[in-house]
Specification:
Rossmann fold; 7-stranded parallel β-sheet; 7 strands; about 15% strand; globular
Length: about 290
């Protein structure tokens, strides 16, 4: 079946989690290509800086995506602001928690789920009526490679990203026969601030590492920059893909989940030290 293409270049878009990382890179890329951009984030200073860096029309609002009423108000403002029909909504905001299930704190998990999953649901519910009324556009929801596989010490994060995947898949089928599409994005390791902004009460592996050390180890094995991720997502949406894998590690995780659905972590655990060493050598050559 041939995929229907959707041009979003030069058309208005909405992006949450736009103060940094993938969201900011998406905003910069699409604004640079002529798209009016409505951006939102809970980080007021980062959002202001992001908005100032965009070359085209921008609507910026400080927003907690976990606040359903706040997201609805934002959608109302966007409707009034839109200079043309809305092309896409990128529900991108996300946070992380690292803990064993045994030591996990309900308040940390609830905080994460409110943003990672309910934030996606809130954004979808707020903007879907606009797209359905137009019979055109895309809802683009950010899951993760951890929405393809379950990883130790990431139970809350994995649960939220599997939920985003299931929610978006269900929505996609509901939209069959319309001009609106639902797209799931599965980024691999992207060099963003998510690990440094995570809630980590103690080293879940019992190795005594600080939060900064754990973040540095995560960043040492990331394989994709936010700008590269934004380019992949942009192209994927325009090519009509229902699922977008971002980064070479995303393709590896996807393959392992299919080939070894109950043993993929054995392969990942063996590969991780080699990956860290390779990334270290690459940084040494670049310096």
């Amino acid at each position: 079946m041939r995929r229907a293409r959707l041009s979003i270049t030069g058309r208005p878009v909405v992006i949450t989690g736009a103060a940094s990382g993938i969201g900011r890179s998406l905003a910069r890329r699409l604004s640079g290509l002529g798209s009016p951009v409505a951006i939102a984030d809970v980080d007021e200073a980062g959002l202001k800086d992001a908005a100032a860096s965009l070359p085209g029309p921008v609507l910026a609002r400080v927003l907690d995506v976990g606040d359903a009423d706040g997201v609805l108000r934002f959608a109302g403002e966007v409707r009034e602001w839109l200079p043309a029909p809305l092309a896409a909504v990128f529900n991108n905001a996300g946070v992380a928690v690292s803990s064993t299930v045994l030591d996990s704190l309900p308040e940390d998990d609830d905080w994460l789920h409110q943003i990672n999953f309910h934030g996606v649901v809130n954004g979808t519910r707020a903007f879907l009526p606009v797209l359905v009324a137009q019979d055109d556009g895309a809802i683009v929801n950010t899951s993760s490679v951890f929405g393809l596989v379950g990883m130790p010490y990431q139970s809350a994060y994995c649960a939220s990203k599997f939920a985003v995947r299931g929610f978006t898949d269900a929505l996609r089928h509901e939209l069959r026969g319309t001009g609106v599409r639902a797209v799931t994005v599965h980024p691999g390791g992207i060099t963003t601030n998510i690990a440094r902004n995570a809630r980590i009460r103690k080293d879940p592996e019992g190795l005594g590492r600080t939060k900064e050390q754990m973040a540095a180890q995560f960043e040492a094995i990331t394989m994709t920059s936010p700008d590269k991720a934004a380019a992949i997502i942009h192209r994927g949406v325009e090519r009509g893909r229902a699922r977008i894998l971002v980064g070479p590690d995303a393709y590896l995780f996807d393959a392992l989940a299919r080939i070894a659905p109950t043993h993929y972590y054995d392969v990942i655990a063996r590969a991780e030290p080699r990956l860290r060493a390779r990334q270290g050598r690459a940084r040494d050559r670049a310096s």
